[in-house]
Specification:
The chain is of the alpha+beta class. The protein has one domain (8-160): 2,3-Dihydroxybiphenyl 1,2-Dioxygenase, domain 1 (Roll), CATH 3.10.180. Helices cover 18% and strands 29% of the residues. It is built from 3 helices and 9 strands; from the N terminus they run E-H-E-E-E-E-H-E-E-E-E-H. It has helices at residues 16-26, 83-92, 153-160, and strands at residues 8-13, 30-32, 41-46, 50-56, 76-80, 108-110, 119-123, 128-132, 140-146. The strands form 2 sheets. It has a 5-stranded antiparallel β-sheet, with helices on one face. Strand 7 (119-123) and strand 8 form a beta hairpin. The longest helix is centred in the first third of the chain and has 11 residues, at 16-26.
Length: 162
């Protein structure tokens, strides 16, 4: 077997519109056409051939609960052009390093991470921890981490302004 790239990552969500707004408006992903499955969801294009699939699952999925950012939990990464610009953009959208541990707009920064590149962690309003791990060069990975979600995701999404 010769694997070239990851085709897609699927994330389970409970509030599709809230998650759709996060990936579109905060991460800047472009929504793409999705086949007419029998369950709700949304697809986003990443780069030339990779996808992010949001899938609504109302009862059987594993969600993050009331846990804050945990840098060792599951996640995936995307690259951004500039760590500094990504940080500036997130701050302009209300993300803060000093936000409370369970606040959706909390940012955890690791500018001198052992991995060899700076890291920024943020939470998706309904499913995910996002980890930005950019290098001091022009390329910067940005990681999204999959965590358990509280039952009150819709309220949290509304409170976060997503």
């Amino acid at each position: 077997m010769d694997i070239n790239i990851i085709h897609h990552v699927s994330l389970t969500v409970t509030d599709l519109e809230c998650s759709r707004a996060f990936y579109r408006d905060i991460l800047g992903l472009k929504e793409i056409q999705r086949p007419p499955f029998s369950f709700p969801g949304a697809w986003f294009g990443i780069g030339e051939s990779q996808h992010l699939h949001l899938i609504v699952n109302d009862g059987n999925a594993t969600f993050r609960g009331s846990k804050g950012i945990d840098t060792r939990d599951s996640h995936f990464a995307v690259r951004v052009e500039s760590y500094a610009r990504a940080l500036e953009f997130l701050r302009a959208h209300g993300y803060r390093e000093d936000a409370g541990e369970l606040e959706l707009k909390r940012m955890r920064l690791q500018p001198h991470a052992i991995a060899g590149f700076p890291q920024i962690y943020i939470l998706d309003p309904t499913v995910t921890l996002s980890k930005s791990t950019p290098s001091p060069s022009t390329e910067s990975p940005f990681e999204l981490s999959r965590f358990k979600q509280p039952a009150s995701a819709s309220k949290r999404c509304a409170d976060a302004g997503a």
